[in-house]
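Researcher: Next sequence.
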Amino acid sequence: MKKPVCLALLLLLSSALFAANEKANIDAEKKVLIQAEADFEAARAQKGMEGWLSFFSEDTANIIPGKPVTFSKADMREQLTSTWNPNATLKWQPVKVDVSASGDLAYTIGTWQLTGKSRKGDPISMTGKYMTVWKKQADGSWKVVADMGNAD
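Model: Next structure:
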């Protein structure tokens, strides 16, 4: 009788420790993603379009209004070449970060502000919301696999 009770207690304790460890890992990944968001914004500010693109996976989804969805960073680069505005400043702040139980997929949701001048030189000031889907890469880094936003 003592052996089954001891075994049950041991299993319960190991399950609790495993769950606590998994939660700690997920919480740690959330902090990594918050930093990744800040690094992403800084890369865009410092390096422009190439800084922006450096945070996307090679098979990223391109979700552009009026066009079919494609899954290629090369397609994204081609599209951005004709629309990128170096005179605009984009800032964003995540307000929610969630990581899958497996720790390899995550999303961030937040707000953004676009200021500066349009490509024609007119002043611009816009705000909106975004959702970004992140996937953990083989090297442990996080890359964007889908990114969408809308204007207020």
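Model: Confidence is low (pLDDT under 50) at residues 16-21. The CA atoms of residues 37 and 65 lie 24 Å apart.
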